[in-house]
Amino acid sequence: MEEKKIKGVAKLRYILFLMKPYWKYGKVYYIVSMVMAVLFQPFSTYLTTLMPKAAIDGVARGKTPKEIVATIGLYTLGIALIAAMQKIIMVRYTRMTQTKIDNKIRNDVNEKALFTDFKYYDNPDFFTKFMFAQEKFPDQARNVMFAFPGIVQGVVTILAMGAVMAVAGPVVLGVTLAFVLLNAVIGLPTLKPEADAHVQFTEAWRPFQYVSRLLKQKENAAELRSSGAGLKFLQAVDVSTKRYQSVYQNYTKKVLPFQLVQGILSPVQAASVLACIVIFVIDGDTTKIGLYASLTAASAALVTNLDGAFGNIQFLLQSTLHGERIAAFFEAKSEIEPIQPGKLPPPEGVYDIAFQDVSFGYDNASFGIEHLDLHILPGQRVAIVGENGAGKSTLTKLLLRLYDVTGGALLLNGINIKDYAIHDLRLHIGIAFQDVRVLAMSLRDNLTVYNDVPEEKLLAVIEKLGLEGVLEKVGGNLDTMVSREFTEDGAVLSGGEAQRVSLARLFTGQFGLLVLDEPSSALDPMAEYKLMQTILDASNTATTLMIAHRLSTVRNFDRIYHMENGKIIEGGTHDDLMAAHGKYYEMFTRQAENYQSAE
Q1: pLDDT of 215 strictly over 80
Q2: What pLDDT shows up at residue 3?
Q3: Does pLDDT of 6 surpass 70?
Q4: Contact 400, 469 (CB under 8 A)
Q5: pLDDT of residue 142
Q6: What angle do CA 362, 368, 374 make, to 5 degrees?
Q7: Helices marked H in 428-513 — which ranges?
Q8: Is 564 helix (H, G, I), strand (E, B) or coil?
């Protein structure tokens, strides 16, 4: 994905970008946070600062212990009431709302990914941005949202503490402000290294996350254990860990000198403030001991809030770097997947398919389809055969408009496929892939991804496709999960059962086109033959395109085309191609010999 290079003040737009989700999903929450920041915390800090002065002054003036305790109690009651109100708002409202907004932000990321053109999945950089947005967007949006109330809270508290200190200790106020400003300036050079480190950490941990995901999936367990793949992946994690360590070491080299200076400044600041209070405020006057206590508390509160305010400002500056990387994911330009008003609805009935002088190539790959012409008549059953890498599956991706042709045109019922509302059109194209994975949903949901149908029809489909064993695994309950992704009670399906479930979806509605990309490879030849007969029986009037490696499954198709290097090199019926003694004849004869020798 190409990135726009934005520099200087213009980068502040990314702060607004990070704020949008909370303004979109939590306006009331934002207002409540501002009210809490402006009223609650500053007033609590103000009472906490004045309480020691009031108590000590009471002693100096000869008040009774009961009166002094009453004074302390009054201040404490005010502080406690504010703390209780903050806690109630936090527990009853804030946490719940934060979780809701965080989930909506994650859903925005996932929705963007879903409606981003499929071509981006060929680009590793897309996954880096995708993962960074998934992991960081909710946190960054929340932190930016809190930064502004934090700044407001800091400013209000600073003004209150500054007023307390300015009356009795202007020198103390000046010294405190000087140290805080110095500390903030010293921290500025650490902003970019910290933001860059976050991105590099995400990239360094990708292999670890991948291995963790593999180990959680039962279908990968056999391969990881029966070969050296598992150990190789563990070695990859070691490499990833070393890379993480290297990133962290480089990060510490850049920021440690500044953080050391900041660490040294802290005790020097505290000692300087204490000296100023003793020299310039008290100066031997013991009646000012109460003032000394309040100035000490005010100075500490002022430092904390100044540091917090500057920290929030620094975070906002740093967030422009995070926001820029997250925005890059959302700014990916897509031409196919976004909803586009004004497009044609999908046609009803069976489809006429025409590849007219079609050319197509993947980015950063030498393979390509060049000047391909292919016409599939309505209701015709056509098979595409050929060696791996010939371009067969690429045709299915073009028919689903996962990619757009780069030359020529792909017509559906005489109209360019680009003119149709693609998401509606895909619901009229039944697809069964070779590498199928059942979804972590119920059996019912897996069977009805195209159309919701009554339970009696689902049971009829299950019987027709020989899925009684799957129904038994779920205890006869269609709402049982066919995955253990979220529950240990889910059913685990074999590869053949998963393929049958995938094919069963094709019986839940009327399709204009069926695209079968080697959908029964996990079945033995006899079971595959019977299943294909079921799919292609007289009741199926849809135009059908079959990608096949086992040529015995397509010998009765209306037309068979042999592809090689992105081109159709021969076509005809099975008998025509066998009589021609070409590449198809060689493939079919070789497979037949293999079946005979296997027997």
Answers
A1: no
A2: 47
A3: no
A4: no
A5: 86
A6: 120
A7: 443-447, 455-464, 468-473, 495-504
A8: strand
Q: Measured between alpha carbons, how far is 117 from 115 in angstroms, rounded to an integer? A: 6
Tell me how crowded residue 124 is: count the other CB atoms within 10 A of its CB: 9
Query: Which of these, 458, 454, 399, lies nearest to 431 by C-alpha position?
Result: 399
Which pairing describes strands 429-432 and 513-517: parallel, antiparallel, or unpaired? parallel
Q: What are phi and psi of 542, to 5 degrees?
A: -70, 150
Q: List the one residue out of 184, 197, 201, 204 whose CA is nearest residue 315.
A: 184
Contacts of 251-259 with CB under 8 Å at 24 or more apart are 251/193, 251/194, 251/196, 251/197, 254/189, 254/190, 254/193, 255/189, 255/190, 255/193, 255/194, 258/186, 258/187, 258/189, 258/190, 259/190
pLDDT above 50 (res 285): yes
Distance CA(440)–CA(443), nearest Å, equals 9
Strands (E), 77-175: none
Q: Which two tokens stand for residue 118?
A: 């499929």
pLDDT tens digits along 28-53: 888 887 777 777 877 887 787 777 77
Q: Decide: residue 363, CB within 10 A, 0-12 exposed, 13-18 middle, 19+ buried.
A: exposed
Query: What are the strands, taking DSSP E only, across 195-290?
Result: none
At which residue do the structure tokens 């791996």 appear? 388
Q: What is the pLDDT of residue 1?
A: 45
Residue 528 CA to residue 523 CA, distance in Å, equals 6
pTM as predicted: 0.70
Please tell me the distance from the alpha carbon of residue 17 to that of residue 32, in angstroms, as a whole number: 21
Nearest to 440 by CA among 511, 398, 492: 492
pLDDT for 232 beyond 80: no
Task: Pick the closest to residue 363 from 92, 546, 121, 31 (CA basis).
Answer: 121
Q: Where residue 73 falls among pLDDT bands split at 50, 70, 90?
A: confident
456, 467, 565, 447: which is closest to 508 by C-alpha?
447
Q: Could you give the CA distance from residue 254 to residue 259 in angstroms, rounded to a whole number?
A: 10
Res 440: pLDDT: 80
